[in-house]
Amino acid sequence: MSILWNxxxxxxxxxxxxxxxxxxxxxxxxxxxxxxGSNLPFxxxxxxxxxxxxxxxxxxxxxxxxxxxxxxAESDAQQQQQQQPSKPAxxxxxxxxxxxxxxxxxxxxxxxxVQSPLLKAEFRKARDVALENGxxxxxxxxxxxxxxxxxxxxxxxxxxxxxxDIGEWARLFEELSGN
Length: 179
What we know:
By secondary structure, the chain is mainly alpha-helical.
């Protein structure tokens, strides 16, 4: 991926090139070793629990039905809230440039990681839903609300990927733009 500043138009130009894009199946390669100084987990290692998972498991243990009476609407709401996993806290991001252009560039980046035209179309659908509702990458990243996209007709896996990868894209964008 390359990001260039077009001073004439006052816009960033993003070119996305995935070396695996449309080149068919890859040969099996041995598992990658982490580069020196890298703190990224690899598939061979066990991933740490998500923020809040340990707390939710502990909170759910040892709780009874309360005083044994009929549960009220308030206690039902509390039980439902405890059963729903909390969304992890996310670090705020800042993407420079025009917000709608950034959403389009992000969509192109996502498309470069899939070969199927149907999946590419789903990413474009997610992009269109975001733009139709006035959402930019910063807002979507803070909300982490992929269910909104599912409710608007985007396939679940695409919606999750579209929301959960924004932080990674923003980090790459900043690295490549030299800031």
